[in-house]
């Protein structure tokens, strides 16, 4: 390395560099660079006692000078702790930094150049030539006149500072893989290769309990540095051979207690591993001679082993006692981070399973459905409360529901499941979308009550929901929204845009802020495409929410009528969803098909005594035209006659009869609407009782029947098998 000081004896570089002799013991550098054979004779020892001189080197000062282009002009990094830092004159200072830190450190260096104020004690990792890292404290000083450039002092505190910085870095993610990777990168300071192997149950989020030593199953979670590895060597994502898992488990569980072990040389490593296949799987290369294995342990009675960390070294670098203590301390400090990631994975899996159960499976013969649910990235706060569902209603319509529950995790998942099931039950019972939202609004308010709802600090206030009901006969959609983003409608002519839905404060708003839920009706001709979604798909920090919705409309408008809808939905999500999601992404696409005109018929009759006879005549003619079986014709005529009779008897105003021939052999659907508001109920009376006889006939003739409410009255519907 170039250690040429600057010409000016008063420069910061010269002053710092001349003081290094008081801190670097004589011969230390030469001892550190001594021949490997000189220490190879002691390779059979498991540990090397600490050298007092080495302890004094635990906090060492170095110095690097830079020009205005941030290139190295000189350095004094002769202390052994700086071995491997390739501070070559003329090379950029950025070559000493991890790639991810280059922009931040470069910005700070240029700031000191421009302003002239020193930047003191920045904790920073420096990259050695072999890929390992050194944690140091950098102080950036402007060079003394007449020199130009910077002087960077480096204080390497390889123990306490590194332990602190490593623990801080490891605890920043809830993803198991990223947590293990951070641990492995921190362990690389003590060796040439570091690996983390975890019990398979940790990966799945299951509880890790005591088990027979021979049954342990380890999977490699992290490995550094990133390079080409020998064939047969276990890399991240691979399971360790069963023999290797058993040997490692037995090694770290000596005397029935988890303990670290050190295998001091290559000959002992090969003798203990035995099988050539196990050696290929665990030994990273020919230069790796010794290994320290430290178990990741959760305190308890008995303690639970989550896995183990491996640090491999060359033969010329035996492990010292103090280094093993540091390794144990770091792994002990970070084991709970691995367990937190395991618990997060378990919760993530549970919530994801619930949400996927709510996803619509298929559409029907009147509508085509496709949905995509993409959970947030694992290191976010957890899986959110986005949900989407679609299901056929008994009266032939299809319900499309999308919602976004406030918060993440199990509390949001429980609320999501409750609201989804409640919405489905109420819609199946015939309630209109606005009435369903009124019930959901009350449910969210009750759930927020600490005495009767979800306690533990979770609140679902402000959750949103949108309900759309598609009528395949009238080709209309009735829609109500509670604070949700408006659906996108693409008409057959290609025009696309958000539906004009009146804004609403959402579910569970304060009583003074509550507004009635509106029902909006839109025409959706056959071939129209409706997109329902959650905000994770359209939110972008660089765009307004309106611009995000406009981007979605443009993307959905490119879906052609002949495109497969599942593939189109995935394409839209991949085009719009951010790479690093902080929220769930949900999309539901519905292509409207509807009934053919010849498969439906509607008659409107005055509420007079002759209405049943006219209804029977219209129905008989239509059923003959449809070539319906004679026994089915008789049943349908009787059914329509009873329903119209009830409508004339108990309601006022005109009576509407609608007959639908469902595709796919689903039978005939009969609907009779009137202006009455009384709900027909099936009593326990017999067929000869004067009251309720018509409903008993309806019940016997149909596979199912029910009532739905309209703005002008009600509709009684009944399905007859063909």
List the helices and strands and how they pair.
Layout: H1 12-19, H2 28-32, H3 36-40, H4 52-56, E1 59-66, E2 72-76, H5 102-115, E3 119-127, E4 133-142, E5 150-157, H6 160-170, H7 176-187, E6 193-199, H8 200-204, E7 218-224, H9 242-252, E8 261-263, H10 266-273, H11 276-282, E9 290-298, E10 304-313, H12 321-358, E11 367-374, E12 384-392, E13 398-408, H13 409-428, H14 433-447, E14 464-471, E15 476-482, E16 488-490, E17 496-498, E18 520-523, E19 529-533, H15 545-557, H16 565-576, E20 585-592, E21 600-605, H17 611-625, H18 630-650, E22 655-661, E23 668-674, H19 693-701, E24 704-709, E25 714-720
Antiparallel strand pairs: 1-2, 1-5, 3-4, 4-5, 6-7, 6-10, 8-9, 9-10, 11-20, 12-13, 13-14, 14-15, 15-18, 16-17, 16-19, 19-20, 21-22, 22-23, 23-25, 24-25
Helix pairs in contact: 6-7, 6-12, 7-12, 12-13, 13-14, 15-16, 17-18, 18-19
């Amino acid at each position: 390395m170039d250690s040429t000081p600057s010409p000016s004896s008063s420069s910061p570089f010269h002053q710092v560099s001349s003081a290094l002799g008081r801190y670097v013991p004589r011969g230390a550098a030469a001892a550190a660079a001594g021949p490997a054979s000189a220490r190879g004779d002691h390779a059979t020892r498991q540990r090397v006692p600490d050298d007092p001189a080495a302890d004094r080197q635990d906090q060492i000062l170095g110095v690097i000078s830079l020009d205005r282009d941030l290139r190295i002009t000189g350095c004094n990094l002769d202390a052994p702790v700086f071995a491997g830092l390739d501070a070559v004159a003329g090379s950029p200072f950025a070559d000493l930094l991890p790639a991810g830190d280059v922009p931040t450190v470069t910005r700070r260096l240029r700031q000191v150049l421009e302003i002239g104020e020193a930047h003191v004690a920045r904790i920073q990792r420096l990259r050695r030539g072999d890929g390992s890292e050194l944690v140091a404290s950098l102080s950036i000083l402007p060079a003394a006149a007449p020199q130009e450039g910077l002087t960077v002092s480096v204080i390497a505190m390889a123990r306490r500072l590194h332990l602190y910085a490593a623990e801080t870095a490891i605890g920043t993610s809830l993803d198991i893989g990223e947590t293990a990777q951070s641990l492995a990168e921190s362990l690389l300071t003590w060796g040439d290769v570091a690996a983390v192997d975890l019990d398979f149950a940790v990966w799945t989020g299951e509880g890790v309990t005591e088990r027979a030593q021979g049954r342990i199953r380890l999977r490699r979670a992290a490995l550094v540095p990133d390079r080409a590895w020998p064939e047969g060597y276990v890399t991240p994502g691979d399971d360790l051979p069963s023999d290797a898992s058993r040997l490692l488990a037995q090694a770290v569980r000596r005397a029935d207690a988890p303990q670290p072990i050190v295998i001091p040389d290559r000959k002992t490593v090969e003798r203990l591993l035995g099988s050539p296949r196990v050696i290929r799987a665990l030994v990273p290369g020919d230069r790796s001679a010794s290994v320290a294995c430290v178990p990741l342990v959760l305190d308890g009675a008995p303690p639970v082993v989550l896995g183990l960390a491996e640090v491999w070294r060359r033969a010329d670098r035996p492990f010292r006692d103090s280094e093993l203590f540091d390794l144990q301390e770091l792994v002990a400090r970070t084991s709970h981070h691995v367990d937190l990631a395991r618990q997060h994975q378990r919760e993530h899996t549970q919530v994801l399973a619930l949400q996927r159960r709510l996803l619509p499976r298929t559409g029907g013969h009147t509508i085509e459905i496709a949905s995509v649910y993409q959970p947030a990235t694992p290191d976010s706060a957890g899986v959110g409360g986005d949900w989407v569902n679609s299901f056929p209603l008994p009266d032939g319509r299809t319900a499309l529901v999308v919602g976004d529950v406030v918060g993440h995790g199990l509390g949001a998942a429980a609320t999501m499941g409750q609201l989804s099931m409640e919405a489905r039950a109420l819609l199946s019972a015939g309630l209109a979308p606005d009435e369903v939202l009124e019930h959901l609004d009350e449910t969210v308010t009750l759930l927020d009550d600490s005495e009767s709802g979800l306690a533990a600090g979770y609140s679902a206030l402000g959750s949103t929901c949108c309900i759309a009901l598609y009528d395949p006969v009238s080709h209309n959609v009735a829609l109500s929204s509670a604070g949700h983003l408006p659906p996108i409608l693409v008409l057959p002519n290609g025009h696309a845009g958000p539906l004009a839905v009146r804004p609403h404060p959402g579910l569970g708003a304060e009583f003074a802020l509550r507004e009635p839920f509106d029902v909006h009706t839109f025409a959706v001709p056959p071939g129209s495409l409706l997109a329902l979604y959650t905000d994770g798909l359209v939110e972008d920090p660089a765009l307004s929410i309106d611009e995000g919705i406009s981007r979605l409309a443009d993307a959905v408008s490119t879906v052609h009528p002949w495109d497969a809808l599942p593939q189109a939905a995935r394409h839209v999500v991949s085009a719009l969803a951010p790479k690093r999601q902080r929220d769930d992404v949900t999309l539901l696409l519905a292509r409207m098909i509807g009934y053919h005109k010849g498969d439906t018929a509607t008659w409107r009759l005055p509420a007079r005594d002759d209405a049943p006879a006219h209804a029977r005549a219209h129905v008989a003619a239509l059923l003959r035209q449809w070539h319906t079986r004679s026994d089915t014709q008789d049943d349908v005529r009787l059914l329509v006659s009873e329903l119209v009779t009830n409508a004339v008897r108990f309601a006022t105003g005109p009576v509407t009869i609608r007959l639908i021939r469902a595709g796919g052999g689903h039978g005939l659907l009969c609907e009779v609407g009137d202006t009455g508001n009384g709900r027909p109920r099936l009593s326990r009376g017999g067929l000869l009782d004067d009251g309720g006889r018509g409903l008993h006939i309806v019940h016997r003739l149909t596979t199912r029947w029910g009532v739905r409410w309209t703005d002008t009255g009600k509709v009684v519907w009944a399905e007859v098998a063909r």
